[in-house]
Amino acid sequence: MHFHKYPHPANFEYPKALTPERASATNRGDCSMFARGWVNDIYHIQVIGEGWGPNASQTEFHFPQRSAGLSGNQTSLHFENDGTIQLRDKKKKVLLSSPKGKFFGQSGAASVFEFSGSHADQFYGMGEKWTGLEHSGKTAKFWNTDVWADFHPESYIHLNPPPDPVYVTIPYLILKRMDTYIGFLLDNPAATFISTDPKISISHQLDILEKSRGFHLGSEEGQPNLYILFGPTLRELTQKLQSLIGTTPLPPAWALGYQQCRWGYQSDKDMMNLEAAFTKHEIPVDGFWLDIDYMDRYKVFTISPKNFAKPNSAASSALPLRTPTTIYSCSPSGPKKPGSFRKSSSTAGRGIFSFKTTAHLPQNSARKKFPMSTRNTRVHTNGDTGIRTSRKLWPSMRKICQPKVKK
């Protein structure tokens, strides 16, 4: 994986007559584009052909009512004879378009979707990036990495340059054009990339000027699948994205407060010192997150018996009514030495490893300034049971993990 090597549209071949359900020839072979739309102005564009197998994505979408053709309640999607694609409103105003003959491109197993831009465009989204809120003039890759292992310390300590890609992959781009918002979602588990009209230079000496502004989204391999969502407001756009991919479950009240999280907490003593420091400085805190340092020889779903002889004590009884909820992070990590894993009795035979930690919200002087009812929370960790098995188990897990309010 070359993290800082991004495919450029100049290296792609663009079929001239690529329209829905019509085959086009490329140097790689024939390919066909398929498009469909829904009444809430969500459109899906898929390309099938030589170079790509079936889509390997495990994302489960929730589709609304299909529209008649490629027309939603407020917009319609059009494929023109000159090879462009246009998104228009009901007054036939063009809201989004591609360059002539350069909407979709292929370069071996790589693919790209290209769109025309304007000087007023602003870009948001793109998941977890360390380069600010607005993303104009940037090129980013989407592929999960371990930042400390995959980048030089100068990058993640001094942000010179900021590391990319990082821990989370969310290839979703938000375009703000005047007062209208449009979303773009790549459904591809391979390494994807998004570019928002960046300034291109050679060794920081010679700037390369493009003839026209624009932005593009693509993937280094994998079947091309792009969703286009029309707002028109940011609130409506976000609601449509949530309706497509699913909404986030309502979190427990304590999860809305401040969460202290970092690597290096290794023992009961660390946790008690940490809680004491928050109390001393009157900083309200509702959760402590531990990295893999708590594990027994770095075996997943274990707690070091030496450093955490009584893990429940570190979370509750050692500091009654004062300690925040403690979360044990289960980042994948191989054991340094062979060892066995023990399933909890309550989940034996169900493919789940579980730690149950009872904890109370802190009732220190800082917490009194932010009153909240005391809750008991049991924290569970889910094994790699696969997405389908996890979904079947989720209803019962929600009942187990549901915070219980003391009356």
Structure description:
By secondary structure, the protein is an alpha+beta fold. The protein has two domains: 237 residues, Sandwich (Immunoglobulin-like); 153 residues, no CATH class. The protein is 15% helix and 26% strand. The chain is built from seven helices and 22 strands. The strands form six sheets. It has a seven-stranded antiparallel β-sheet, with helices on one face. A five-stranded antiparallel β-sheet has the order 7-8-16-13-10, with no helix packed on it. Strand 4 and strand 5 form a beta hairpin. Helix 4 runs parallel beside helix 5. The longest helix has 15 residues. It starts with 22 loop residues before the first strand and ends with a strand. The C terminus is likely disordered.
